[in-house]
Amino acid sequence: MSEPKKLLIITYYWPPAGGPGVQRWLKFVKYLPDFDVQPIVYVPENPTYPIIDEGLQNEVSDKAIVLKNKIFEPYSLASLFGKSKTKKISSGIIPNQKKQSFLEKSLLWVRGNLFIPDARFLWVRPSVKYLKNYILEHNIDTIVTSGPPHSLHLIGLQLQKDLGVRWFADFRDPWTTIGYHKALKLSASAARKHKELESEVLNSADTIIVTSKTTKTEFEGITSRPIEVITNGYDVENVAKQALDKKFTLAHIGSFLSERNPRMLWSALQELVEENKEFKKDFQLKLIGATSQEVLDTISEFGLNEYLQNLGYVPHQEAVVHQRKSQVLLLIEIDSEETKSILPGKLFEYLVSERPIIAIGPKDSDFAEIITATNTGVFFTYNEKERLKEVLLKYYHEYQNKSLKANAVGLQKYSRKNLTEQLAKLITS
């Protein structure tokens, strides 16, 4: 019997990190040994994760080899001047430009102009030094870097130059077109440096892996290197059958950024509460995850505070329970051209929850196509309030009749195991 293929995976997010960034490679590592691939995972020893979920430690495959190396992160110094603000910015919660304090503006300027491509750039040189020795000692010929943070791709770039290893660059999100990039107050020289690094990575990696077809199209305008789409997916969750919430709950699970603030949704809900006494009695809005103050202020502005249950961040397993028991799930993306490519990791967990999805985002979003094709919900652009009201009322009547349920089709291709098989074929070919 042949030896398993060794794959070195360089990633920043790893248990006990919480949030969506950890899930993709945690699940690939879980299933890679089933396809005769030995995962060797390289992660920081002392990271400053904005979200911690200790329960995810139990999901790390006992067949994985995990390497750890110290990291110095400038956020640890910046937090001395504003710990909560630094933590929010590092986790992607960027305040509205008009409401930013001097400290927040300063942190964003430093993040965009001095930390290029991001605040983990100081980990590149020590990682290359450490991994060169490990790769040579253990005869590894294939590596994967996962970003963001995109500084990890610079580790792969240097290892490829120095050792000639085969390098896959995995982009969970785009680089210079990601929604928050514009908020970083980049100087012309900093913006140019980001573009140059992005181009060098995309034109050097042997293969680029992306999570959506729109990102593939975008990158095809920068490079002629092979680009493969491997989406995120859903895993088999050990969650007991859940009794549905007694209230007509609309639940948003995950980070709720200022730019995702759907005023037309809050307006539609305000009108339904005012127009329908039964709806007013039954309705509840659940927010599960880090939520920006601007979103909370807007909910208050529309008079919806009395219907709000704001639970904050909960461990992943608890979040899955809420997905299964809520009446309707909310999936909201920023209304911009740049976010059409975003396929939130929670989308795929939503798909298998059997709960209908209300999705709001820019026209021609990749996730709109998936929701429609799988019959798991309804997609709306930001200017379809009346249609949104009609669907909310339809779902409410089905809730009253105890018939509210999503009848999904064609989900199997998004299972984590099937996606890992796709990855394994790619790296062993």
Describe what this molecule looks like in 3D:
By secondary structure, this protein is α/β, with parallel strands linked by helices. The protein has 15 helices and 13 strands. α10 links the parallel β9 and β10. α1 packs across α15 and α4 crosses α5. The longest helix has 16 residues. The two termini are 18 Å apart.
Supply Rg.
Answer: 22 Å
Give unreliable regions as ranges: 78-83, 85-93
What portion of residues is helical? 25-40%
Main sheet properties: 7 strands, parallel
Q: What letter string, H or E per element, gives the SSE order?
A: EHEEHHHEHEHEHEEHHEHEHEHEHEHH
Shape: globular
Strand content: 15-25%
Q: Which characteristics define this entry?
A:
429 residues, alpha/beta, 7-stranded parallel beta sheet, 6-stranded parallel beta sheet, 15 helices, 13 strands, globular
Summarize the structure.
This protein has 429 residues and is α/β, with parallel strands linked by helices. The protein contains 15 helices and 13 strands. The protein has a 7-stranded parallel beta sheet with strand order 3-2-1-4-5-6-7. It has a 6-stranded parallel beta sheet with strand order 10-9-8-11-12-13, with helices on both faces.
